[in-house]
Design a protein that fits this description.
Strand content: under 5%
CATH class of the domain at 39-112: Mainly Alpha
Structural class: mainly alpha
CATH topology of the domain at 39-112: 434 Repressor (Amino-terminal Domain)
Number of strands: 0
CATH architecture of the domain at 39-112: Orthogonal Bundle
Helix content: 55-70%
Distance between the termini: 63 Å
Radius of gyration: 21 Å
Order of helices and strands: HHHHHHH
Length: about 110
């Protein structure tokens, strides 16, 4: 069983210092490649709806952290119901919709 003193000692310890070694520095080339790796959902949110993650989450009927997970790495997949909500919201706003946007990553920005 932990005593008060042992807990206090753990809390008062300074955090461990980690050495971060980078084989190469982050350059503009890497920034360009990162920008070109935008997910399909991030492209829809930023370029089609021009919305922040909170606004887009309310459109899709999910929470903001879910939208963040969709955009980061596809950790969580989008359902057909959520796709239908996004498509309906686009039509309500008068946006010419294309269902391919859900499945094809945007490459036009990278080709320029």
């Amino acid at each position: 069983m932990a005593t008060f003193n042992s807990i206090r000692q753990r809390i008062s310890r300074p955090p461990l210092k980690r050495k971060y070694t980078n084989a190469y520095p982050f350059t503009l080339v890497h920034a360009y490649a990162y920008k070109c790796a935008m997910s399909a959902i991030a492209h829809i949110r930023k370029n089609i709806f021009v919305a922040n993650q909170d606004e887009f989450a309310s459109i899709a009927g999910v929470t903001q952290p879910t939208v963040s997970r969709w955009e980061r790495s596809g950790e969580e997949s989008i359902t057909l119901e959520q796709m239908a909500r996004i498509r309906a919201a686009a039509e309500e706003r008068g946006i010419a919709w294309n269902d391919r946007w859900f499945f094809e990553p945007p490459v036009a920005e990278c080709a320029q």
